[in-house]
């Protein structure tokens, strides 16, 4: 299985800040990398697919980059509504694995 | 806009079988690999397996010996059956739809629609 490792596991920031979450894959997943956010009590929601493409309806404050084994998600101009946990997920090789999550507090 | 809804027993005893069903409302049922994913505090998000409308399946190797995913295409539903559960199977179970582009081995996919999730607790 491809292991996905996120860092940090949690972070605290203020409204208006920018934060970056990183995701490292144990094997080359090319651009087969997706990002999700999850608010408490809700299902995950797609933010970014194919490493850098913003899902329709997601604010342009969210951006992502990377390829191969190293990826990052950046949230600019943090809003209170961005609170939650962020996950990366590889879709290169089954079983399709997720990172352990980064909990964002504001 | 597709909507997914899971249901099934939420409390099981060890050694019992877990059975969940997901209904898909709106959109096409064919052409997708309908997926089960679970989330537990200990293991995070875990991909369980998938099935298409013809019944072709792909299972997580770690669960394969206990897992059956089936489909009822006329009803736009698919189901999960996991045998001999233990406390380690306690989790919120989600059904999800992957979409993507490409063909053959160059197919990039992501989960764009999720059910609300159902908590399954295994406890004696």
Structural key phrases:
heterodimer; A: 106 residues; mainly beta; 6-stranded mixed β-sheet; 4-stranded antiparallel β-sheet; 0% helix; B: 124 residues; 7-stranded mixed β-sheet; 11 strands; globular
Give the fraction of residues assigned to helices of chain A: under 10%
Mean pLDDT of chain B: 95
Q: How much beta of chain B, percentage-wise?
A: over 45%
Shape of chain B: globular
**Main beta sheet of chain A:** 6 strands, mixed
Biggest contact = A-B, 24 and 20 residues
The number of E-state strands of chain A comes to 10
Q: What letter string, H or E per element, gives the SSE order of chain B?
A: EEEEEEEEEEE
Summarize the structure.
Chain A is mainly β and 106 residues long.
Give a verbal description of the structure.
- The complex is a heterodimer of chains A (106) and B (124).
- Chain A is mainly β and 106 residues long.
- Helix content of chain A is 0%, strand content 47%.
- Chain A has strands at residues 4-7, 10-12, 19-25, 33-38, 45-49, 53-54, 62-67, 70-75, 84-90, 102-105.
- In chain A, the strands form two sheets. A six-stranded mixed β-sheet of chain A has the order 2-10-9-4-5-6, with no helix packed on it.
- Chain A is globular, with a radius of gyration of 13 Å.
- The mean pLDDT of chain A is 97.
- By secondary structure, chain B is mainly beta.
- Chain B contains no helices and eleven strands.
- In chain B, strand 9 (91-103) and strand 10 form a beta hairpin.
- The termini of chain B are far apart.
């Amino acid at each position: 299985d491809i292991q996905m490792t996120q860092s940090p596991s949690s972070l605290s920031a203020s409204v208006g800040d920018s934060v970056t979450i990183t995701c490292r894959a144990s094997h080359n997943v090319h651009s087969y990398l997706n990002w999700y956010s999850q608010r408490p009590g809700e299902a995950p929601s797609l933010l970014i697919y194919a490493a850098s493409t913003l899902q329709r309806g997601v604010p342009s404050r969210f951006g992502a980059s990377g390829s191969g084994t190293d990826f990052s998600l950046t949230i600019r101009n943090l809003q209170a509504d961005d609170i939650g946990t962020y996950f990366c997920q590889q879709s290169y090789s089954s079983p399709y694995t997720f990172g352990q999550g980064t909990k964002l507090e504001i | 806009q597709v909507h997914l809804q899971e249901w099934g027993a939420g409390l099981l005893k060890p050694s019992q079988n877990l059975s969940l069903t997901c209904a898909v409302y709106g959109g096409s049922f064919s052409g997708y690999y309908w997926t089960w994913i679970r989330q537990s505090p200990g293991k995070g998000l875990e991909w369980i397996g998938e099935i298409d409308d013809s019944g072709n399946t792909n299972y997580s190797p770690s669960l394969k010996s206990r897992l059956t995913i089936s489909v009822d295409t006329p009803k736009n539903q698919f189901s999960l059956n996991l045998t001999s559960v233990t406390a380690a199977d306690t989790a919120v179970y989600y059904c999800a739809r992957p979409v993507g582009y490409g063909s053959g081995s160059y197919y990039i996919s992501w989960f764009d629609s999720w059910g609300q999730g159902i908590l399954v607790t295994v406890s004696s």
